[in-house]
Amino acid sequence: QIGYEINQSFGGNYLFSGFRMDEPPVFIEDNNRSFVITQNFHITDISREASFQRLVVPGGLGTFEPVSYNINVIKLAYTGLDAQPVIPGFEVRTLNITDPDAYRPPVDNGASPAVPVLHYIPETGELVMHSDTASAFPREGVSVTYQKTGFRQDDINPMVYFTGREIVDLNTSHIQLGTELVYNVTQNFSRAAGTPVPAVGTPTSYNFTLAYTPMVPAPADLMASLPHGATIAGNVVNIPAHVMNTTTDVSVTYPVRLMDTPVVGGVHIMADTRVQGAELVRAIGVDNIAIPLNTIEINKSFDMKNQEIQYEFASRTRVTVNSLAKNVVTDKMFADFRRFFEFSDSLYVSTEYDLQQHFRSLGYSEEAIKESVEKQLTKENAMARDALHKQFNNMLYLIDKHVDNSTREQTLLGSRMIRMELIQNRLEDDEGSYTKLTSDNEDTNLIHATILRYSAEALFQASLMANGGVIQMSIANFLR
């Protein structure tokens, strides 16, 4: 329901996606898209709750006693990542949910200086830490980077929530042998890095060595973009001295052709690693021999900075008219709800039958089996209730925090509405003022116009009477 609400659209444009109006904040269907995502966490994102872990022993019976720990955990937005996340300043250890140590609060690795350890649990997307690690969590927060391929319906859309890049598969099954990859490369040069020409005396220009040899001849739509008066010979660019500022770098953009060499099993091309910071312009087959292609990957970077849509109603009077999904319904809210439901679904105790079979296999008498089963079920139920109680109380606290966040966005929206009403009132007042000013300058003075009308009418009537008298006299004379 939350995903449905945040996916509201108008005219085919999603209202909470910033400038990415074609991207829904929450996926509406399963897909196999792939993203490299950077997610930020602060100390306030650490949850303090209880774990409840059911381990499995050979034979399929649960452990004789469930394992529960008081844990400090942060929750990633997704489960089932392609690889364990990378967190600067921390050692990450991947432990499956079936590992007895998965929820055991980890200690540092004994290095000097000590490096805090996080347990990453792929099935739940949780990062479990020791209470000391939580207390010393960096106040500026940490950035967690990971890759995720394949998303379910109702997963949040990384392009609307995070900073990262999408790896796009062009779905090409074959590529031509000797494929020509054309890039636009931009390099910046400072005067200090150049070779003066001439070497002695006052230089008239500077030479710089390019990282690649430009295409010669270059296609018409890929001509090099050079500073005024600069020339390129081979991989050396010559820039006039008067263009080179002592403090500002000069930018040179030029096209580069790179030939990709096929490998056994296909070709794998990574545009952003072939030429760092360059833009892949086109890939052209230069002959007719086709070979299998694994993937062509192009990195499309994205972030949610500067996504506010503002209308300017007057000079230097701008009002933000949109709200972002990441501020209204945060990724932390989705992760908290997901984990709460997963926890509730996974919470179970041993069945009476399984316990009877377990104690019978240990050689217990029927009376001892009955007593042991009753005691075990009582203990497991108590542990399950305690874990669920702690989880529920923690969820109430988290919901209050998320409600506060949504309320803050509602408050911002309310202040924008008040500002819009004030602008509307001002524009209405301006309309009255400009109407009066126009009226004073251009409208007719009805009193003055009426007087002139009657004066002109009287003069016209007098003229008619005089002419009428002349005509009558003339007729009388004619008759005579």
Major beta sheet summary: 5 strands, mixed
Give the amount of beta strand, in percent.
Answer: 25-35%
Shape: flat
Number of strands: 23
Q: Kindly, what is the distance between the CA atoms of the first and last residues, rounded to a whole number of angstroms?
A: 109 Å
Strand order of the largest sheet: 9-3-10-21-18
Class from helix and strand fractions: alpha+beta
Furnish the topology, listing elements before pairings.
Blueprint: H1 2-6, E1 9-10, E2 13-14, E3 31-41, E4 47-50, E5 70-75, E6 91-94, E7 117-121, E8 126-129, H2 131-135, E9 142-151, H3 158-161, E10 163-169, E11 174-176, E12 180-189, E13 195-197, E14 205-209, E15 231-233, E16 236-240, E17 250-259, E18 268-270, H4 271-274, E19 279-284, E20 290-292, E21 295-302, E22 310-314, E23 317-320, H5 325-328, H6 331-346, H7 352-361, H8 366-442, H9 446-479
Parallel strand pairs: 6-7, 18-21
Antiparallel strand pairs: 1-2, 3-9, 3-10, 4-5, 5-8, 7-8, 10-21, 11-20, 12-17, 12-19, 13-14, 14-16, 15-16, 22-23
Helix pairs in contact: 6-8, 7-8
Polypeptide structure, described:
- About 9% of the residues have low confidence.
- The protein has nine helices and 23 strands.
- The protein is α+β, with helices and mostly antiparallel strands and 480 residues long.
- The protein has a five-stranded mixed β-sheet. Strands 4-5-8-7-6 form a five-stranded mixed β-sheet. It has a four-stranded antiparallel β-sheet with strand order 13-14-16-15, with no helix packed on it.
